[in-house]
Task: inverse folding
């Protein structure tokens, strides 16, 4: 079983990302279940604006799309900016939108039988709303969401500490991550054994 | 297999509710899969404000809560007011909140292995956002969401037609409802056969 | 100049409310500008469900509505539950909805020339989203929003400290409250001197 | 008095944009009040990802930022994708974020005394939520919002008509646009005559 994560940080590859730190912790939990996590950063790729599966010359999305389809588990990971999913996360949703009309011979979207998780990090406030936006987008484009499909960390109101500067994952976030991963892996196995029906 | 729906319309029992019409259509689809749907209207019950499982004397929630737990499928159905889930839907979420600390001997919330669906109706605009709010609330309190976990109808911007006054379900809504139900029933069966693990 | 606040806490009058503590601080800031703040708790009133200006026998809304119209400044104050405005806040929005078709001889809604502020408190996460929901609702029903129209406090992710148990307002929240009040009072004065035009 | 609009369509300049059609109508209404509207398309500019006022070499934002500050009225116009503000609109909010720490000698953000409007277009559903997200972002970064600060159009649920293909603005949208503009122009004049105070 494979997992694939898209890190939507605004920071390019050289720069440390709090979202990556949360993904490290998700990766470790996935490892306990024998699942490996591959990941990419949108900021390092030329994902073109648009709502089709392939926006042409130089578009990095088709390869990201293949990685999404190659894995049974998908992690959409984003920082919070202005209380919202960051622009790179919204761009990923816009590109995922093309799955709505991309169905297989069951009449299901090509994403069917894949389980999604959401990871959200910010200095302060916004995780539940970001989760809401991403859950709705992911469900719309055919992903399944296990019980407790989000893990997150934010600091106190108007604080400026970064998650990457904490010494360790706070206990509650660590526990939420572990539960999220255990349930998502279980559900992906259940769907692998019993895929969605023909519509 | 049983399904239980909470209709969050602001209208009391005697009054026709567009949300009920959408629930009728969900009920019919569930019937095709051999699943019966029981339903209640929050507006007809004295569901007390609060965030515990039982708010005491006269609180109708404990019985609603039992019905939620007695069914493998849960439908949260709400009209849109001001672009948001209506106040009765938010009250239901507040009461469901108590499941977060109500875990079974697996360490899972008591709602685990139950699959939720969302049904949203309005004169105009707001369905996706209402879906987002409800998905996040339902995932937080332990429900699982199948691919395409929402069905909805709204009219054109600033329009005033009621769903209950349409001659029939518009084709796209009907198809979305059918897909939602097929996938949710499938997922509930998969989870019945293979419940979430001990945490 | 007068201000009127609706506290949407789920707690009834006898019980201490963090939202009230934030309202105390807003009241103090209003006092520095010579504005007095009257306030009510929805939880202590029988505000009936519905979307009209008067839902009949025993409905407490018509009096709340009069207080809203009697003041130049309106404060909508709510705790966060499940990351959303609490059910009482949504009920207030549903009742305010009636202003959309309640216009004066300028063709403006009766709320025109009134400035709204938003106050949000939670144990953790959700303030910006609650602000977003309330801003949109308040603008839809005719209120004007000054620069920086929200103040808030939330704790770290998944924390359980109550705002009412802090020794004092954290400096950043205090400063945000002071700015919000200064700008709102200014804008209400500007609109009193120069009311919105005939449409 | 000047107005400046940012069109956040995903489409580049050569392609017709429904958002532009709504901006044409806003422009016409502004003209009735003697206000001219300048506009840019984010999709045609290299607005770099980030949250500072200038992200360096080749960043188109500093010039957009100057146009925002040169005008008394700001229009943030966006299509709806996945029920959310599109990624270009979120990028604009991320760049506006820098105003939070960019204050003048009054201690006010440099955006103070500027009035913002929101214009939202989609095939179906999502306008109120997009408005909510943008209102909150705009208020956070110092803009003032007049009564009825949004105009919008969306079609029926799951419909695919584009606003640009309608013969004319539907009457309700036209009226909402006219009211939005009249109130915003009035408020900008009121703030020009009586700017926000020193904090």
Result:
């Amino acid at each position: 079983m494979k997992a694939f994560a898209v890190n939507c940080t605004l920071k390019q590859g050289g720069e440390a990302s709090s979202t990556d730190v949360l993904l490290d912790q998700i990766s470790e939990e996935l490892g306990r279940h024998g699942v490996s996590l591959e990941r990419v950063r949108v900021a390092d790729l030329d994902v073109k604006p648009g709502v089709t599966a392939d926006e042409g010359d130089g578009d990095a999305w088709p390869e990201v799309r293949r990685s999404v389809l190659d894995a049974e588990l998908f992690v959409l990971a984003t920082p919070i900016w202005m209380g919202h999913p960051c622009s790179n996360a919204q761009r990923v949703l816009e590109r995922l939108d093309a799955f709505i009309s991309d169905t297989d011979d069951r009449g299901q979207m090509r994403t069917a039988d894949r389980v999604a998780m959401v990871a959200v990090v910010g200095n302060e406030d916004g995780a539940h709303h970001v989760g809401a936006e991403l859950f709705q987008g992911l469900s719309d484009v055919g992903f399944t969401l296990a019980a407790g499909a989000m893990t997150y960390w934010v600091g106190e109101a108007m604080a400026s500490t970064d998650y990457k500067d904490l010494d360790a994952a706070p206990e509650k976030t660590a526990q939420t991550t572990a539960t999220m991963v255990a349930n998502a892996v279980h559900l992906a196995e259940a769907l692998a054994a019993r895929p969605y029906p023909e519509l």
